[in-house]
Design a protein that fits this description.
The complex is a heterodimer.
Chain A lengths: L1 E10 L2 E11 L4 E5 L6 H9 L6 E6 L2 E2 L8 E4 L11 H11 L5 H10 L13 H13 L5 E5 L7 H14 L6 E6 L11 E6 L2 E7 H8 L3 H10 L1
Parallel strand pairs in A: 3-8, 3-9, 6-7, 7-8
Antiparallel strand pairs in A: 1-2, 1-4, 4-5, 9-10
Helix pairs in contact in A: 3-4, 4-5
Chain B lengths: L10 H14 L12 H8 L3 H13 L3 E4 L3 E4 L3 H25 L4 H16 L1
Antiparallel strand pairs in B: 1-2
Classes of the chains: A alpha/beta, B mainly alpha.
Chain lengths: 230, 123
């Protein structure tokens, strides 16, 4: 589904990612973990075709990632992407006009699920509700890859909970692969199948969440603490 | 996410334990249908593959049966339900006894101690 083949990305002299290889399967939820500056966002941007590797290849659904292939990739950034004067329903119309795979019906269902009213102005929404709206817009598309960059950052536990439940209710597990980049792992560990750990642009490891518990008796957060101490 | 999980045990097994307890407490009765994998995943805030494994494990234990196209149901076999209760009791006894042994208690002291504790608690 997604392959990183000896991928390096340099920004000037700074190493964003150094010689990273891994491979992701369809229909799973992956966690991309590491401290700030570890290369998580760079990895997501490479999959979305927003940046190109300095060397190596990023393959998405059999093709090298680029902006064109990225029509099938949803990339939810950490920054807000809204026009503040829009109402929620204007934003829905705008997405509908921009993305062929956008479903207005699904969007309405999700707004309902998240308790958002379509007549509200975006500039009047709380940070939590803006976070919810971002997820509504993302999950209303049918693209095969869903990239979430720090979807929980700065949100209170209630909002985090509704985002986790929204993901679990509306992801199409038959067709969609989800990658969640975060440094706040504790709450979302039960949501993940596998985890890819990065540090300073280096690949630390990739493992199944349940296997780590079975074999080492460790949660991901404990594993991270041990690894980063050394 | 509603529920917390211990780090030392796989999540799917912790959910197996929770469902088993609900069955023993009769919150889930023999013949009851379990929620769909997706509904259970949303409720527990965990990955659906984890719930899939939970249901497989419960099926292996013969505590539930899946009927094709209909869902997963709690068994009506009283013998299996009794065994489930006995097994869970024994697991709790085992850890209780081994903890008290580490304190150096004899069997007699354990029983006397437990009786005294229960008397106090029921006052």
């Amino acid at each position: 589904m997604i392959d990183f083949r000896s991928v390096s990305k340099k920004y000037g002299r700074h190493n964003g990612l150094s010689n990273i290889s891994f491979s992701l399967e369809q229909g799973k939820i992956y966690g991309l973990l590491g401290p700030n500056g570890s290369g998580k966002s760079t990895a997501l941007k490479l999959i979305a075709g927003l940046v190109s590797p300095t060397s190596g290849q990023v393959i998405v659904k059999g093709k090298e990632a680029n902006r064109k292939a990225a029509a099938d990739v949803i990339y939810l950034t950490e920054v807000d992407i809204f026009y503040p004067s829009f109402k929620i329903k204007d934003m829905i119309d705008y997405y509908d006009s921009q993305f062929q795979d956008f479903s207005v019906i699904k969007a309405r269902e999700l707004l309902d699920f998240m308790n958002l009213e379509e007549d509200r102005k975006i500039k009047n929404l709380s940070k939590g509700n803006r976070g919810r709206l971002k997820l509504v817009l993302a999950l209303s598309r049918q693209a095969s890859v869903l990239l979430l960059d720090e979807p929980f950052s700065g949100l209170d536990p209630m909002v985090r909970d509704s985002i986790v439940k929204g993901l679990l209710s509306y992801i199409d597990f038959e067709k969609q692969t989800v990658i969640i980049a975060t440094h706040e792992i504790d709450e979302i560990e039960p949501l993940l199948d596998d985890v890819i750990a990065l540090s300073d642009g280096e690949f630390l490891g990739m493992f199944n969440v349940e296997e780590l518990r079975e074999k080492e008796g460790l949660s991901i957060i404990e594993w991270m603490r041990r690894t980063f101490k050394e | 996410m509603g529920e917390e999980f211990q780090a030392s045990k796989p999540i799917y097994m912790q959910i197996v334990d929770r469902i088993s307890q609900q069955i023993i407490r009769k919150e889930l009765s023999p013949g009851d249908k379990l929620p769909s994998v997706r509904d259970m995943a949303v409720h527990a805030g965990v990955n659906p593959n984890t719930i899939q494994r939970t249901y497989q494990e419960l099926e292996r234990m013969e505590v539930v049966m899946s009927k094709r196209g209909q869902g997963t149901f709690v068994t009506q076999d009283e013998e299996i339900l009794l065994m489930l209760k006995t097994n869970m009791q024994n697991e709790i006894f085992a850890s209780f006894v081994s903890n008290l042994k580490e304190l150096g208690l004899s069997n007699k002291e354990m029983i006397n101690g437990l009786e005294k504790y229960l008397r106090e608690e029921n006052k």
